[in-house]
């Protein structure tokens, strides 16, 4: 008689699966809670201790690690192996259905203790899975409840599970155990505070297969970190619209990272990973009006993110423009009724009430991976110093704070011109700083008079200050740190410009 060993933490569908196997003539072997669940459903079950001749001990830590189990899993169906297991009284096991202790769910709990996490590290389960997967030519191994039906169907139709299916199931097992071990490794690494481990392994779950990547000729998929921040695009809820594209996801993430830096009501418009307009106000409606005014041309086809609910009044404004995505904590029913009349606009909600988590930033390079901390520095962290004769006025300070928040998110070289309510001009991704300043100042036009300017890095020469002064800028915020800082300070004093050094740069490549 063929044998199936079933031992699962997630019991979804397992009773029906075991019934089908039993009806097909399989003996069912099981342990613990799974055994009870199957017996309670009227299924004949052999306890694993009857196979091993050894009781469960060490609070359940030891029950399946035994030659009578692993010999049955690892034996090839060849004469030499069959003779050996018969000599030792071992019977083959033909199907293994195992899923693991819920380590991921355990460590995701806010109040989890170290002891609880450690006890949810499965040892016997991964060992059985790996043994069965290694022997896929002869053993069917199932780790995912979604595969139960296909296994049963093949058994009914063919009398066995095909080698191709067994190989695919084995591959899934090794992905599953690798991900499981990666989560344990990450938890233990964080537990001991190791910042630069000699090896890193990260695991992600498929969220979406994308139509294409950055361009139509590139294939792409979207994976999420199951233990990552829920305050993220990876964990957003889509209320309306077609599936997100590769570029949509990139831009939406950029917009959300910008919104996170603001406590006051803000609207952020993003195109190609750069802000094209940011406005603050007393409400989402006021903030969006200002963001739209900042660059009414570039906002077309853009991504809009709010940190306040979208109401009817705001939705009516949004409805007048072609937009790809709108992100917000929520949408009123009236707002949804207005916006969902547009078939293709994507509406996403993100839990803004969730705690902000600082995560690592990964950038792939050919043959490797760059890992760094997120740039979470703000003016609170900075050593702010007024270096000119004139100090900024109260309104200039508010404008400088806004400009400094925004410039962090603009591709380097970056210059932002703003007042205290919205951006006026943004120069992004230029090969020299004066070029970025000229773009920002040209966009701002006459509105640059009386406005402020921020730079993501220091001025190597005084030419940026000269350009700002001629455009009417009255205050500047920049990191400082150039060997020629004094030239820029003198130039600012010459034009009566207030200039602030932060001591922090915000390069963004």
Automatic annotation (TrEMBL):
Question: What one GO molecular function would you report for this record?
Answer: phosphoribosylaminoimidazolecarboxamide formyltransferase activity
Q: State the source organism's domain of life.
A: Bacteria
Query: What GO CC terms are in its UniProt record?
Result: cytosol
Matching CDD domains: IMPCH (cd01421)
Which pathway does it serve?
Purine metabolism; IMP biosynthesis via de novo pathway; IMP from 5-formamido-1-(5-phospho-D-ribosyl)imidazole-4-carboxamide: step 1/1; Purine metabolism; IMP biosynthesis via de novo pathway; 5-formamido-1-(5-phospho-D-ribosyl)imidazole-4-carboxamide from 5-amino-1-(5-phospho-D-ribosyl)imidazole-4-carboxamide (10-formyl THF route): step 1/1
Question: Which parts of the sequence belong to the MGS-like domain?
Answer: 1-143
Cross-referenced SMART domains:
AICARFT_IMPCHas (SM00798), MGS (SM00851)
Task: Report any Pfam family annotated for this entry.
Answer: MGS
Q: Name one GO biological process term.
A: 'de novo' IMP biosynthetic process
Q: Which UniProt keywords apply?
A: Hydrolase, Multifunctional enzyme, Purine biosynthesis, Transferase
Keyword Transferase included in the entry's annotation: yes
Task: State the similarity comment.
Answer: Belongs to the PurH family.
NCBIfam families given in the database record: PRK00881.1, purH
The name this protein goes by in its record: Bifunctional purine biosynthesis protein PurH
By which gene is this protein encoded?
Answer: purH
């Amino acid at each position: 008689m063929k044998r199936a060993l079933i031992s699962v933490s997630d019991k979804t569908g397992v009773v029906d699966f075991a019934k089908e196997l039993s009806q097909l003539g399989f003996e069912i072997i099981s342990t613990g809670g799974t055994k009870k669940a199957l017996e309670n459903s009227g299924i004949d079950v052999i306890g694993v201790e009857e196979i091993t001749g050894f009781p469960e001990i060490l609070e359940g830590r030891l029950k399946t690690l035994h030659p009578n189990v692993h010999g049955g899993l690892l034996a090839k169906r060849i004469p030499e192996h069959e003779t050996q297991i018969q000599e030792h009284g071992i019977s083959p096991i033909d199907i293994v259905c195992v899923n693991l202790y819920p380590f991921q769910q355990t460590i995701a709990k806010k109040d989890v203790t170290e002891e609880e996490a450690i006890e949810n590290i499965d040892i016997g389960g991964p060992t059985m899975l790996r043994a069965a997967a290694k022997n896929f030519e002869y053993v069917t191994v199932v780790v995912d409840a979604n595969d139960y039906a296909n296994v049963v169907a093949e058994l009914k139709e063919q009398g066995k599970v095909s080698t191709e299916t067994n190989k695919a199931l084995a591959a899934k097992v090794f992905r599953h155990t690798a991900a499981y071990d990666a989560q344990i490794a990450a938890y233990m690494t964080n537990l001991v505070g190791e910042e630069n481990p000699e090896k890193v392994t990260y695991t992600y779950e498929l969220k979406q297969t994308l139509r294409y990547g950055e361009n139509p000729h590139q294939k792409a998929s979207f994976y999420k970190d199951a233990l990552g921040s829920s305050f993220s695009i990876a964990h957003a809820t889509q209320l309306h619209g077609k599936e997100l594209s590769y570029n949509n996801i990139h831009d939406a993430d950029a917009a959300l990272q910008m919104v996170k830096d603001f406590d006051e009501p803000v609207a952020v418009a993003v195109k190609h990973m750069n802000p094209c307009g940011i406005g603050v106000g007393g409400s989402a409606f006021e903030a969006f009006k200002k963001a739209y005014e900042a660059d009414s041309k570039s906002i077309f086809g853009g991504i809009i993110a709010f940190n306040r609910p979208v109401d009817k009044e705001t939705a009516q404004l949004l409805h007048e423009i072609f937009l790809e995505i709108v992100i917000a904590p929520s949408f009123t029913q009236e707002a949804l009724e207005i916006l969902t009349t547009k078939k293709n606009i994507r509406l996403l909600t993100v839990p803004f009430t969730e705690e902000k988590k600082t995560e690592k930033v990964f950038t792939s390079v050919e043959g490797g991976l760059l890992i760094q901390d997120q740039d979470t520095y703000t003016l609170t962290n900075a050593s702010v110093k007024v270096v000119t004769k004139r100090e900024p006025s109260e309104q200039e300070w508010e404008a400088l704070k806004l400009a400094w928040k925004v410039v962090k998110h603009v591709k380097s070289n970056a210059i932002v011109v703003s007042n205290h309510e919205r951006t006026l001009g943004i120069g992004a991704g230029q090969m020299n700083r004066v070029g970025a300043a000229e773009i920002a100042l040209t966009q701002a036009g006459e509105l640059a008079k009386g406005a402020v300017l921020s730079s993501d890095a220091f001025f190597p020469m005084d030419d940026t200050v000269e350009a700002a002064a001629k455009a009417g800028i009255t205050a500047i915020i920049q990191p400082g740190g150039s060997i020629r800082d004094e030239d820029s300070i003198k130039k600012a004093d010459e034009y009566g410009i207030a200039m602030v050094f932060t001591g922090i740069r915000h390069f963004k490549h």
